[in-house]
Amino acid sequence: MQILTKVTPMTKLRCYLILLTGLIGSTQPVFAAAQINDPHNDTGQTLLYNGVVLVLDEDNTQTQAIVIADDKVIAVGDNSLRAQYPNAKMIDLNGQTLMPGFIDTHVHISGKAQRYIDLTKVSSIAEIQKLIREKAAQLPPGDWITGYGWSEDTLAELRRPLIADLDAAAPNNPIMLTRAGAHSAVFSSEALRLAEIDAQTPDPEGGTIERDDTGALNGIIRERHQEMVGKLIPVASNAELRPSLVQELQNLFPLGITSIVEASNTVDYYSEWQHIYATHRGRLPRAAVQLAYAGDEKMSSFGLKSGDGDTHLRVGAIKIFADGGFTGPAAYTTKPYRGEDEYRGKLNMTEGDLRELIRKAHTQGWQLGIHAIGDAAIELVVAYLSEALEDMPREDHRHYLNHFTIKPSTSAMKTMAANTIAITQQPNFMYTLEGRYTEYLDGERLQTNNPMRSPMNQGIHVAMSSDILPLGPWVGIYAATTRKAMSGAVFGAQEKISRFEALRAYTTLGAYLTREEDIKGQLVPGMLADFVILEDNPLVVPDAKLLNMQTNAVFLGGRQVWSKQP
Ligand SMILES: [Zn+2]
After folding, report:
1. Ligand 1 center–CA 456 separation, angstroms
2. How far is the CA of 372 from the centre of ligand 1 (A)?
3. What DSSP string runs through 347-372?
4. For residues 79 and 206, what is the distance between their CA atoms, to the nearest angstrom?
5. Cα(332) to centroid of ligand 1, in Å?
6. pLDDT less than 70: residues of the chain
7. What's the pTM value of the predicted model, to 2 decimals?
């Protein structure tokens, strides 16, 4: 999805309270403090035993106990480790499962401004209208109201919110409500008036201003809404956004996530991440931040490159948006969308510009993490990356594609494998976006949407991530291993992967994308002690349980950073 720079609010007081509650709530140990900070124990070692310890190494080692010291794993084995480390602090896992923390290699985390409404859990347009009315009452007249996360698939009215719905709720406020996935948004009349968009305004390059049967605006703009309207929304200050950004990062722990790749950020905002990580070091998930290419001068004066930083925060790959998404739809496909004669989405830029940008960033030594959803976009990106690699070879470049939603040709996948172009894939889309895919796709490309088995069989490195649809690993693990969508329908069972493969794709294979596979993602001695304690073993529970797997505690660098118990 696209960067959500303009989403922002909460009163300062509310932010403060949430932050405070979050900090208090998230630092309570699941095990008695005395157990962890035993004054009689000066070895600095902690032994967690009597559990199911999933190492997630290549051999799928499963054992009972783990010993940590400082921020690292020092031993893994069965309960006999108790005899070998008699002076370690002892923690009885009571049969719980302990595995490496999840590494979500495609998320979007941003602070929220006072004007912002969270729409990720709304269940009707009426509820959206209620939230708008409440927000309008808190803001001065004429102030912007923004929101993110609605989806017609989960609204009781089974349709999208439209301009009339927004106008009825707050006629005097400009309103922008972005759909889940951020590829489209709905606007109020006041917002479109400020943007000087009317029924005669032509569609922008790569975007669509929707009109109803009578030619009137229905309020929806697909793809270019940020440039057309969103840019008018005043930017919230870093100080206004900071508490909620910290909170959003801490909210990842209960989901079992100990590392992320923030998938679309800017060189300008990176210093704010540095500030936050300097302040909250060790109490936030480890992060790599993907950056948009901001021009030659700015990129060189930035002074940092992909991989620079430390184990807590580092610069990620350059993010390029090759095409759009499926909520539009605007993904660039080789065949027209279902029921369309010609329309097959669009590239976000010309082919020449895409090729040039890839070559330039590659030549300058950046790692590339490129958004490509449609098969036509994927094949073009693979061709341009391969060409750049051929002309200017670079060992161990770690370039990867974000999404890889529509399966490209076998020859494109073979080229990816030959050039070690990796993928971070979101099988949870298969589940969550079922309605969109069945509406816009058909045949094999519908069945094989968000493939994992095919690229893996070709020898491509495939990591898994959530792209916040929804945030967290379990919907993706369920979908990748069952190929079941929200309705229960199975799509392309031949794309199934095993539970073990899915867990690996969400841990060590994710670490590879930030060059950290030697320090995290498996629980072997010498690696960082980043792990989660789960109520049950995800390798053996029934399928349905995967959708409801509970995290009991989270350790980051050997320190407990979250627990379920009060
Ligand atoms: Zn995204």
Report:
1. 22
2. 10
3. BSS-HHHHHHHHHHHHHTT--EEEEE
4. 59
5. 16
6. 1-42, 327-328
7. 0.83
